[in-house]
Amino acid sequence: MPIIEVKHLTKEYNLGAVTGIKDSLRHTLAKIQGKDTWKRERFKALDDVNFTIEEGEVVGIIGHNGAGKSTLLKHLANITKPTRGEVIVRGSIAPLIEVGAGVNPELTGRENIFLNGAILGIPKKVIQSKLDEIIDFSELEQFIDTPVKRYSSGMTVKLGFSIATSMDAEILIVDEVLAVGDIAFQQKCIERMEKMIKNQGRTVLIVGHNIRQLERLCTRVMLMDHGAITNDGLPRKVCGLFFKQAQEKTFNRKEHTEGKITPQRDSGIISVNEVELFNSDGIKQNGTGLHEALTVKVTFSCTQDLERPEIVIGLHTADFVHVLSVSNALPDIRPSLVAGTHVVTCQLTDIPLRPFSYSLRVAFLDQHRQMLWYAENIIPVLITAGRYDITRLPEVGLIDVNANWAFDKEIATKKA
Asked: Per the domain annotation, does 30 fall within a domain?
């Protein structure tokens, strides 16, 4: 029997709001009398959602912002009630829905540990036995008797995650909270979740935007869009589909190619006027093929003379994994530039990236490697299979490197 069943789950909200108490009373009275003619637009956060989860499954829930992921988790945790449909949960739940969820800011960290344990129905003696473990994992020994309202958001997450994962609930629900903690604590949380999954057989539901992390942790992934589950299956397949949709969406955004390029860092010395891409034949286009050349042409201006500037050009994925970077500093081709407009071209002679849509980033640094100008996501770069049969390319990995293959002569002869 499934540990979680969701049947025709629908959640609707009224858009817009009553402007004041007087209007609210007037509309409430009219509604009671059956005379209310004011109709507000209805928004479906969840639209007839159906699925089951078996005990011990680790399920990732992905989708763009507003897809309904967090709303779904709140229904599973019984935090909110559906408009229609039902949610059946056969087991205790430890929810970590958002920063501070289930944590009372007026109580100390220690008091919150006992409160959360009591809410989950765990005896005080059991909580007491786990107290040192929870405090140690949270790294908050110095602050455990301080009211939580004085904690930073990262400290609150540490406490909440430590409580949720230390209690013996059968189902753990985690919603995008790990991104708030520091890198070291994030890794610590992932290691604990992996231990829970492998050793304890805990049922876990995770919402997140770190798709590669979810692909590694989960046994199953559901993709949501506009309140509905559009795909449900193996992590690699569903995550790959989501990446493809995200890259296509990025590629089709006109703002990448129109108007002024806005940098993330700008000293006021450099301004980039135009970035163009050319294939191996010198034809302007939006990308190139696997193991083919790609030329990047950057037209820029500088307000003062620059002594031997360094220029870095690279590509990154939709989740900002930097997969390729080149610099004119390595071959030491660094001419000094006078104030004015210049054009630099960089030919990447062999693109090793697997077919996908990536994004271009460009950086300008002075001779002392101080950043003058930097921008990511400048324009999308489409890498195709080119001259290769795409069905023969491996499914795992981002890059394709040349490799020499050899077989034992006797095996090769038998095969022939």
From this structure: yes
Question: Mind spelling out the 3-state secondary structure of 20-66?
Answer: CHHHHHHHHHHHHCCCCCCCCCEEEEEEEEEEEECCCCEEEEECCCC
**For the segment 87-139, what is each residue's pLDDT rounded down to a tens digit?**
999 988 877 766 555 678 899 999 988 987 787 677 888 889 989 988 998 88
Burial class (CB in 10 A: 0-12, 13-18, 19+), 131: middle
- Identity (one letter) of the amino acid at 296? V
Which of 262, 251, 264 lies closest to 380 in space, CA to CA? 251
State how far the Cα of 101 lies from the Cα of 160, in Å rounded to an integer.
8
Among 243, 202, 208, which Cα is nearest to 70's? 208
CB-count burial class (<10 Å; 0-12, 13-18, 19+) for 147:
middle
With a CB cutoff of 8 Å and minimum separation 6, the contacts of 42 are 12, 13, 14, 15
What are the tens digits of pLDDT across the range 245-280? 776 666 565 444 455 688 999 999 999 999 999 987
Contact at 8 Å (CB) between 129 and 166?
no
Rounded to 10 deg, the angle between the 124-138 and 153-166 helix axes is 140
Could you tell me if 107 and 168 lie in one domain? Answer: yes
CA neighbours within 13 Å on the CB side: how many for 216? 8
Euclidean distance between CA atoms 282 and 294, whole angstroms: 9
The torsion angle over the Cα atoms of residues 97, 103, 105 and 107, rounded to 10 degrees, is: 180
Taking the C-alpha atoms of residue 78 and residue 1, their distance in angstroms, rounded to an integer, is: 20
Range of the domain at 80: 4-250
Q: How far apart are CA 224 and CA 51, in angstroms?
A: 12
Q: Based on the structure, what is the number of domains in the chain?
A: 2
Angle at 208 between CA 203 and CA 209, to 5 degrees: 150
Q: Do residues 41 and 179 both lie within one domain? A: yes
Extract the tokens encoding 29: 């009275």
pTM above 0.85, yes or no: no
